[in-house]
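Dear colleagues,

As part of the handover before I leave the project, I'm documenting each prediction I ran so the next person doesn't have to rerun anything. This entry is a single chain, and its sequence is reproduced below.
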Amino acid sequence: MKYIIVIVFILHGCSHSESKSAEVLNGTEEQKQLTISDSMSISSIVPYGLNPKTPLQKDLIEVSRINNDSLKFQNGTAYLNGRIFDGCTYQVFENNDHRYRYTKFENRKKVWQIGYYANGILDHDFHVFNDKNKGSQRMWRGDGSLYIDNFFLEGGIMHGVQKRWHSDNKLAMESKYDEGKLIYKKEYDELGNLINPE
């Protein structure tokens, strides 16, 4: 079952929308041999509370053969060589600790962006729709500790419990939204003391 899911993601989710794309991505047969984690087949629209497992960087490298700088954008739609692009791209920021970025385009739009630090630690995992946050949004520090865990409905509307942590992994902020309406917000100092209840 895992093998079937892998092929569906690569051939549908991370290949160019035109049939010639297999040439760019080193051929369909090679793609079939990749062992991408099941999580990469999860829809970009993730239900609240169900954060998908972030793909490993080595797997993202295998399916992201197009440099994002090669794309042109018009009204939010990605084009490669004048044709609509669906697939995965990469970016490398040589002079930045936030070094690597991988982006998935699906149905002409950016739907998933994953970043890794220069040291190979996961940086961020964002789901988007029409250039606005939609679904889970998570960020990590360079030491691998989780920094932010948020969730958005379509249109960038906050929903559910949102959390942020101090560098020592203690909770810094917790809030809850119901379709954009703030239900509560609690902030804590580094000693765990409540400092700003709302």
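The radius of gyration is 18 Å. Residues 1-13, 15-46 have pLDDT under 50 and may be disordered.

All the best with the project,
I.
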